Amino acid sequence: MKSPIRNEDEETPLDTSGAPKRSRFAWCVTGSGHFLDESLEIAARLPDLDLFLSAAGEEVLAIYRMPLEQLRERFPRIVRDKTASGVPVGMLYDEVYHTVVLAPATSNTVAKCAFGFSDSLPTNMFAQAGKLGIPGIVFACDTEPVVVTKSPHDWVTLRPRKIELENVERLRQIDHCQVVCSPMELEAALDARLKALALQ
Question: Rounded to the nearest 5°, which phi and psi values hold at 128?
Answer without folding.
Answer: -70, -35
